[in-house]
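Ticket reopened. Same input as before:
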Amino acid sequence: MGPKRQPTLDEVAARAGVSRSAASRVINNARHVSQAKRDAVERAVAELGFVPNPTARALATQQVGAVVLALSHHDPAQFTDPFFAQIVLGVNAELEKTELELLLVLADTTQGQARLQRILRSRRADGVMLMALHGDDPLAALADQHDVPVVFGGRPLHAEPRWYVDADNRGGSRLATEHLIGLGRRHIAVITGQMDTEAGTARHRGYLDAMAVAGLDPSRVEHGDFSEAGGAAAMTRLLAAYPEVDAVVAGSDATAAGALRALKAHGRTVPGDVAVIGFDDLLTALHTDPQLTTVHQPVHGLGREMAKMLLSLIAGEEPHPLILPTRLVRRASA
Amino acid sequence: MGPKRQPTLDEVAARAGVSRSAASRVINNARHVSQAKRDAVERAVAELGFVPNPTARALATQQVGAVVLALSHHDPAQFTDPFFAQIVLGVNAELEKTELELLLVLADTTQGQARLQRILRSRRADGVMLMALHGDDPLAALADQHDVPVVFGGRPLHAEPRWYVDADNRGGSRLATEHLIGLGRRHIAVITGQMDTEAGTARHRGYLDAMAVAGLDPSRVEHGDFSEAGGAAAMTRLLAAYPEVDAVVAGSDATAAGALRALKAHGRTVPGDVAVIGFDDLLTALHTDPQLTTVHQPVHGLGREMAKMLLSLIAGEEPHPLILPTRLVRRASA
DNA sequence: GTAGGGCCCGGGAGCGCTTCCAATAACCCT
DNA sequence: AGGGTTATTGGAAGCGCTCCCGGGCCCTAC
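Engineering reply: fixed in the latest deploy. New output:
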C-alpha cells in the first residue's frame, strides 16, 4: 500500500505562510486573494500533493458531489440488456464534464430499494436518476418525499413525474406499424414489452394508432417481457393462434431477435413470410439474421439528457420534461 | 421536492433527554447504554425520522462507506458487453450485504483516468476494484501509490498484482481446444481476443498448450478484439488464409458469434464444416444459431469474489489472489 | 468498612473543510 | 488631504458525527 496520510489544508496554509481561509480561497479560486499569496499556495499545493478531502468539503458545503443512477428491475438479468449499458454510458459522458461522481444503485431487490431510501434520506447524493419503473414500483413515490431532485428515465405507468426524459415510444411504434402497412402487410401482430411499464403500453398504443388509421384488425397480440426468450415464446404462441400472421412489431430488439429465432424454428422466412420490426436499435439489431429493421431511440442520448436535466436541477434551474424523437431504421427484416 | 431538513443527532438526543454521546452509542448499538436510555433514543429516532448523515460520519471515522468499481477500456462500446453487466451484478450482490455504496467509474478516456486518480488520492472511497486492464494501462500502476486497497479483476499484462481475482483462462482455452481435437478436428484455428490483455494472451496460450500436446499445427491464428464485429472480420481473414480450417476456438462468445455469422456468409455449415467454440458462456451463447459450445467462466462469481476480497482487505485481512475455474459447456456448435 | 472494578454517562475535542465577519490595507475621487 | 470604497486578511464558528476521558455509581471482596 501507499505512503503517508494526505496533507491537509492547514499544512498547505502553513507551508505557504498564509491563513487557512486564504488557502481555501485559492483552491476554490475565489476572489480576494493577492497574486502573491495565490502563487505561494499553489506552490505549496504542488509540493505537498494536496488534494482537498471531499468528505470534509461535503460536510461544510452541504453538497455531496455525487449523484445516483438507480436502475429498477424485477429480475437482475434484465440489467444485462445492453440498453442499460448505453444509459450508463450516456450518463457517464455527461457527468465526466463535471466533478460529480456516479453512484450506481441496482434497486431490484427490496434490499436495493431500502438502500435507495437510505441514500435519499441521508443526503448521500445531490440528486437521483431513476430508470425503468414498473407500474407498482414503490420507488416512484420516493421522488416527492425528499429534498433531493429526482429525474425519471421513462415515466412510471400511472404518474407524470415533474421531471423526466423519455423516448417517443408511441410515435416510434406507430411509425413501425405504418411501415409494415406500407409494405402491404395486412395481418400484423404485435409482441408487447412488459405491460406494467410505460414503454410497454405506449409502444402497444402506437401500434393500435396505426392499425386504427388503416382500419386493420389490431387484435393479434401476445405479451413479452423485452427479453429474447420472452420474444421467442410469444412468437410461438402467435403462430399457433394466428397462423396467417405476415408481420410483427416487437417490443424491443431482443424481443424481435427471439421472434426471429422462433420464426426460423417454425420454418417461416423473414421477411418473406413474415416481416419483423424491432425497437431500440441496439447493436444486437445488427447481429441478427437478417439484420433488424427497427425503431431507433437515442438510448445514449437518453442517459445524457437525464444527467443534463439533473445537473440543471441541482444548479437550481427549472428544466422541462423531455421526450426524445424516435425514427425508423430500415434494414433487412422488413 | 421535500419537506424540511433532516434532524440531527443533537436533536434526537435533546428529545430523548440524553447526551449526544449516548445517542450516538445507541444508533451504533455500542455498549454502555442503559436500556431505558436506549429505548428513549430509539423512540426519538423513530419519531423524528432520524437518519445519520453519512458525510459527517465519514469525516469522523475516516471511512467513506463506498467503494469504486473502475472499468477500463479503450472504446466505450466495449462496456456494452454483457460481460461487464454481469460483473457489476456480482459486485452489487456482494455489496448489498453491507452498507457500502458502489461508485462506478468508467475509465476509458483520460478524463476517466484522472477522475480515478482523484478518487484514490482524496480518499473518496474505501477501496477499489479495477477491471479489464490493457497492457499499457496506466491505471495498473495506481494500485501501490495510494493508501487504498485495490483488487484487480483479471490481471494486467505485465504485472502480478498483490490482490486479484481471475478466471482460469489458459486452462479453459486448453479444454476447448482439446475438445475439438477429441472431435477429430485437425485444422484448428484460433481467433484471439485483444493481445494486449492478459485474458487474450492466456487464452491463446491455452490453445497452444493443447495443440502442442497433440502435435498439431498451431499457426492458424487471427486476432480479434472480443467483439462480434472483430470476430466476423477475423473469421473472414481466416477463411481466406486457411480454407482448410475445420474448427475455431474463439476468444469470446461475441467473437464466436461473429465467426458464426462470417462462416454462414461464406457458406460453411456449423458444426458440419467448421466447429466453433466460444468463451464466457454469456446469454448470447444461447441466442446464436447453432447455440454455442463454449467455455464457462463464472463472471458473476468473479464480480462477487472481487467484492469479497476487497471487503476482507478493508477489514484488515490478507486474502489470497484467486483464480476461478472454467469448464466446457457442450452445446450445438462443436 | 473500604478499596477496587466494572458499568453508565456527559463533556469536549476533534475529523478537514467553508464561510461569515470584523479588522486592516490599498485606492479612488474631488 | 480626507472621506468613502473596495480588496485583502486571519480568526473563529460551524457542518454532524465519533470517541476518548474522567466522574459518578453500585457491587463485590477482603
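Residues 18-22, 25, 31-34, 37, 56, 58-62 of chain B lie near DNA strand C (CB under 10 Å from a C1'). The first strand of chain B starts at residue 66 and ends at 71. Please confirm and we'll close it.
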